[in-house]
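Hi team,

As requested, here is the filled-out complex form for the calcium ion run. I kept the field names the same as last time so the parser does not choke. Let me know if anything looks off before we queue the next batch.

— J.
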Amino acid sequence: MIKILGFVILISVVSCKTSETPNFIKQKADVQVLQVPKATQPPFIDGIANESIWKEQNSWHPIDQLWLGAPYTSDDFQGRYKLCWTKEALFLLVEIKDDIIYDQYKDPLELWWDDDCVEIFIDEDNSGGEHQYNHNAFAYHVALDGNVVDMSTQKVGKMYNHHVQSKNITNGTTTLWEIKLLIFDDSYTDEGDNTPIKLTVGKKLGFALAYCDNDASLTRENFIGSTAVEGKDKNRGWIDANIFGTLQLID
Ligand SMILES: [Ca+2]
Ligand SMILES: [Ca+2]
Ligand SMILES: [Ca+2]
Ligand SMILES: [Ca+2]
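And here is what came back:
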């Protein structure tokens, strides 16, 4: 009887523990599937798109979904991007036309979303689901000066500069960003050592891209994303990975 009781207690303890552990069961359909070509050589992150993997891709993907703010003009904002991958990383080429480049907060952890920045949403296993204060997915704000911020599991802004390498060059009102993104899975911990995963052909990742556009205001004027978001509140990407699109890595 004692043995049986012990077994029951053990089972109860195990089930309690399991229910406390974040459980990122896949809940997202593959939407807006983009096939991403493999680069034989990783692009050199210098903000210059002279690599063949960028030149070979004739078409760009648009950043044209208004997530926050009033409707904007094409003089105010236009954005588009290309992607490629190697086994080490995902690479982005992002072309932003923005009439005024604005960086009012020099402290990278102060109101980072209110400066002009590129925001990369990535969900390693394309699970979708909630990720506000956990690492089921990441929402990296990449600032003009290269600093990278997302919410930590401590519910505060944290620098993740070792996840994203970027370089941007502005010519007139056009800024070209070249970005290398290491991919971490949901076992990531803010305290411990983490190893980025190796990418392979056929892998699917949840992904969206956005731009925070501020031209002279206290808070950002527009937030424009790459995916269509249902409902009134479209500023969902930093909380909900279900609004991400899907990348499929091809050879
Ligand atoms: Ca380059
Ligand atoms: Ca603008
Ligand atoms: Ca995930
Ligand atoms: Ca701006």
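Two things worth flagging: Confidence is low (pLDDT under 50) at residues 7-21. Helices lie at 2-20, 52-55.

Thanks,
J.
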